[in-house]
Amino acid sequence: MSVTITLIDQDxxxxxxxAYGAVALMAASGVPHKGxxxxxxxxxxxxxxVGHVLAAKSKDIHLHGKSxxxxxxxxxxxxxxxxxxxxxxxxxxxxxxxATVLVAVEAAAGFGxxxxxxxxxxxxxxxxxxxxx
Length: 133
Hints:
By secondary structure, the protein is mainly alpha-helical. The chain is built from 6 helices and no strands.
């Protein structure tokens, strides 16, 4: 079975910026490099329409910011926009996108021993809140 991708390039870019931006925010919050690798693998392991969009080779992921705050100003609204976009155009993919991003965040935060540090835990909660907004 093949998935037909019916999103315009701008919509695909929004999804990629949101998902990969969430992993970038985790990195900016202090997640070790290997954890970020696990988060990225989680994104490229997605299935369905979301999986096809996130796995596509693209040069449209432009994350700007010299601070965590500037990065968050770009990424958190993108997460909310991506969920709304899918809710309008592909409602059956909303849960897939949300779950994919949360698995990537958990994979990044869960690397290493013990619980994630407080800064990482707070960023994970902010990402979850943006997905739920």
